[in-house]
Every structure is written in structure tokens, then in C-alpha cells.
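REVIEWER CHECKLIST
Item 1: Sequence provided? yes
Item 2: Single chain? yes
Item 3: Sequence as submitted:
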Amino acid sequence: MMIAFTFYLFAAIAVLGGVMVISSKNPVHSVLYLILTFFTAAGLFVLMGAEFIAMILVIVYVGAVAVLFLFVVMMLDVDFVRLKEGFLQYMPIGATIGLVLLAEIVMVLISRSADITTEALSHVAQPTPEGVTNTEALGRILYTDYIYIFQAAGLILLVAMIGAIVLTHRKRPGVKRQVIADQVATRPEDVIEVKKVRPGRGI
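Item 4: Structure as written out by the authors:
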């Protein structure tokens, strides 16, 4: 009963958070609501026994949102004095979302530690054998049956990263750059001058 109540509560919070993301006029509020939505979705995955997916959701998506917001602040011409002045303005909504996240963590811990009856277990899918965790089972499948697809996905991400660097790379005039080919082709006699110095005399 506790798990069902927590599931529907988290689902309602996730839907409400998603609506607030697209309806908030303040971008800072939208980012906070987006983090709340991702965190709530991770709580739903924990309730379903998919701890690995929940962890990835928090690490990748919540971390990506924070890093993206950081880069936006860095790239835009932001007046940090005015930004600090609005700190108290964002404090209530930030504190509220923080309290909601804390309450969700407590509810997930309580729900996971609650006694589950045999009737409830009969309605829950058991994708992994006994004695094998969800993360271990996923790792076995990912690195055996789908190893080539996994490596191909990593290669695609690498190409995308290199492409993004090439597209955003700008050549500025007057900046000295390292030319590997010229350094390799350099001969000692071109850069070193040997002079014979007589004893007691300088060059």
C-alpha cells in the first residue's frame, strides 16, 4: 500500500514539475523544476527496482542540466552583481524544491524497507535471477550480447564531440601555435650554433 501511494505521489509530482518547466517564465525556475522532475523520475525507477537506471538518470541528466546552466551563464553577458542580488528572490522556490527532494528520498527509503506481501510480489516482474543485482545483470547483458552496439554508440559520441570541437574552434590571428610537423622536421644545425670560445674570453 505504501509503495502504491509513493508511486502515484511521485508520478503526480513528475507531471506537475514537467508542466511547470514549460510554463515558468523565469529560466532559473524552469531549471529547478526540471531537476525536480528528473529526480522524481529517478525515484520512480528505484521503486520499480531499477537502481542502475535511477543512478544514471540522476548523474547524467541532473548533472547535464547543471553543467548546461553553468555554460549558459558563462557564455551570456551576465551581470553577476544583479545575479547575486536576486539570490533571495530565488531562495523560497529553491528551498521548497529542496525540501520536496528530501521528502522523496525519505519516502523511497521507507517504501523500499517496508514489508512486501506475497500477493504484492506476484504482481511485480522479476527480471533478474536470485542473488544477482539489477546492475550486475544489466552489465552482463550490455558487455556480452550488446558489446558491439555499445562500442558503436561510444564511437558515435566521440565523433560528435570531435565535430563539436572542430565547428566551434576559431583561429585568431597573431597567436603562436604549435606546429608538430615543423618541430619534427627541424634539424639540429638549423637551430643550434656551435662556437669555439677561447679560454678566458667570452663570446
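Item 5: Key structural point noted by reviewer: DSSP finds ten helices and no strands in the chain.
Item 6: Recommendation: ____
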